[in-house]
Amino acid sequence: MELAGSMMIILLTGILTDNFVLSQFMGICPFLGVSKEPSGSIGMGCAVTVVMLGATAVTFPLYHAFLVPMGIEYMNTILFILIIALFVQLIEMFLKKYVPALYKALGVYLPLITTNCAVLGVTLLNIENDYTFLEAMMNALGAGLGFMLAMLLFSGVRGRLERCNVPKAFRGMPITLVAASIVSLSFLGFGGIVDGLFGGA
Amino acid sequence: MSYMKEFTKGLVKENPTLVSLLGMCPTLAITITVQNALGMGAAATFVLLCSNIAISLLKKIIPSQVRLPAYIVIIAGFVTFVGMILQAFLPDIYDALGIYLPLITVNCIILGRAEMFASKNGVGASALDGLGMGLGFTLAMLAVSSVREIIGNGSWFGIKLAPDFIQPMTIFIMPAGGFFVLGCVIALVNRISDRNAPVRTGCAACPNKDGCAGCGTDSDVKEAK
User: B140: part of which helix (H) or strand (E)?
Assistant: First the structure.
């Protein structure tokens, strides 16, 4: 029960309070670039979640099995980014060959994920926070779902923004950022909720 | 003369953050204080300078099919180097930058300059380009962080301004304030540069499209139609 409680805390913290996009500013580029349509947001969110889980599942054991015993922990950035690039490429090849329908839906997002700082960020944070393997996977899942939630919510806001008459200087990126600021403000309201719900467990 | 142009274009005309809208993540995350912004700017400028030089030197050796992974590895190498230097000599800055220091590796600006400039130009021009772009990035972060630190914390570069000068509004050093201030700064730049609006290209025509994660500038193209 205690284990389930701490897992839930990590998961909900990742989705709500420490939302990667809106509180930690990771993955802003795809968040602003792809969140124009709800369908695109879900596609990108799914792809990112899968890559985050996969990358964590590979980098976490590698870090503890190779880098720590050999005393070269400082190589983690180089190793992790290579693994992420490799992993994205593998998923792309696999989907293309075996699940062409899914490849058609997600294919365009996959190459963009390599340079998504949220993916590298989550693998590095797992190490930094001294998570166990299970906690690390939960953190990756929470980060991915949080990313998807933020994109989905924001695509709705942007849909309304399209129909607004915005001052000329604010058109395009500036008004998008101001809107993101208000969405981020709403996520501030989740602060403390997670600990309140599961802190006693 | 043309060398001078490679350097100055990054400062204002093609400012990577405010005009090309790249590298948003660190610009938003690290600009809580001016000191952090300068630390981040210096680290990113150094990496940009070194990676531009290295990639420009290696441009004939790297096969074009694997150039993006190769660039990322070169950049990650320099980022690791900067991280170790900072940890040894400026531990305060190292702690303040935290997770965002290794994340310089995936900063769109650095990969973008490698792909768009260093892989096509000579060493001297690439070095100046890297330096100019890095300083432009630093200047943009300096602007955003000044606003945020003065309004959000009532201080500048850690120096407390007169106590009754302004009532600190904490919201400005929170994430929401970051989005808001950056949006306003970009709007201001748009307003000033109104007469000769920068040419924006859509993602289809962007030479950086394989290496970037969608910079969002294509939205401006759609509206211009």
Answer: helix B123-153
